[in-house]
Write the structure tokens for this entry.
Amino acid sequence: AAGVIQSPRHLIKEKRETATLKCYPIPRHDTVYWYQQGPGQDPQFLISFYEKMQSDKGSIPDRFSAQQFSDYHSELNMSSLELGDSALYFCASSPEGHRLAQYFGPGTRLTVL
Amino acid sequence: EDQVTQSPEALRLQEGESSSLNCSYTVSGLRGLFWYRQDPGKGPEFLFTLYSAGEEKEKERLKATLTKKESFLHITAPKPEDSATYLCAVQANYGQNFVFGPGTRLSVLP
């Protein structure tokens, strides 16, 4: 069965650089969620999109932005990277976005040096 | 504020030794409670969704139950391959995002 695809899987950046993470949801899933998971911590919700519109917003820094495209894939853009941004970034998708489980991708490990 | 706590923080079992993990939550209107398994460095793997008090779901050696304030994940005769962090998450009626608990790190020794 198709799963959520995230790219790249690993990313190393310097402080103050920018990064773009990509997420391709499971086919026919129209809702995408982004989570940040620091070392030894539980996933923290950043932002979600339903039918290409932002549907919910969590603890996403102003330096980050995201969007969902017409093919439902999503990109998380991160600017002015800080050391504290080093984390695993997960994308999850769900169909219709209500009362249904979110299926997580393998994550992108971002390291900021 | 929606909150999820899990206990114990870590649990070490011998192979075949059954036990339960607890997830306690406070949320203003529960849309669903979700259990995930997460292996180190990997994305959470969906296990169960529970929607209403009294509901139970089973999958192999795992059984999840839900009350109005908490959920239990029962592990019967665990095997070493069940070793992982088990995450509980709630979704409130007013939003789509999940609030995760801190997880229970389970180790099953052969």
DSSP finds no helices and eleven strands in chain B.
